[in-house]
Amino acid sequence: MAVILQISAGLGPAECRKFVPLLAEIICREATQNNLRCNNLTEPPAKNREIASMRFAIEGENIDAFRKSWEGTVKWIWQSTIRPHHLRKNWFVKVSFFEFETKDNSSFKSSDLKIETCRASGNGGQHVNTTDSAVRIVHLPTGIEASASEERSQTRNKALAILRLQEKLHLITEQRQVAEKESLWLDHYRLERGDAIRTFKGLPPREFSFI
After folding, report:
1. Which of 100, 158, 188, 195 fits a disulfide with 2 by CB distance 3.0 to 4.6 angstroms?
2. What is the pTM of this model?
3. Using CA atoms, how far apart are residues 172 and 183, in angstroms rounded to an integer?
């Protein structure tokens, strides 16, 4: 079983966008603790970069309980260092889940894909640059490409790159783009008005309980 997880700052300010990757790390860590696999569909942002939204494929059993514990508005209490004199300390992002449309897999034909491998670069100690584990895939009919290098296994990187490519192709359709924009507007208003399902405080964010 798999679902799509979206973490979105909506139309929120830079502080909300800063919280998106921080919350993504927390959610994926909790997913792993619950024996769920969290595959990042958003290509990794640069370090410390603010990002408006991230999407993940969550796979495994008992996803419903995990989904229930996260779906909704998440609040972050933090004195901004981006705008140190700003009076506001409460920032919000929206966590949403969507059904995974597996039928999109049928759109891939081996003749449509150009698959390249290369040596992974970046942090990773002695295991980096020893094997051609990084994978780049180009969808020839559209020119859309996706890559993955986080895993040491070329097989896992290939699977992750295909997931990212599938997500990109799904998002380029006009209908999906319109739906995404409408969803962001709706999420923005829910972020401001809805009650937070979970609250975090400080940097690094730690879960905060009022009990």
Report:
1. 100
2. 0.68
3. 16
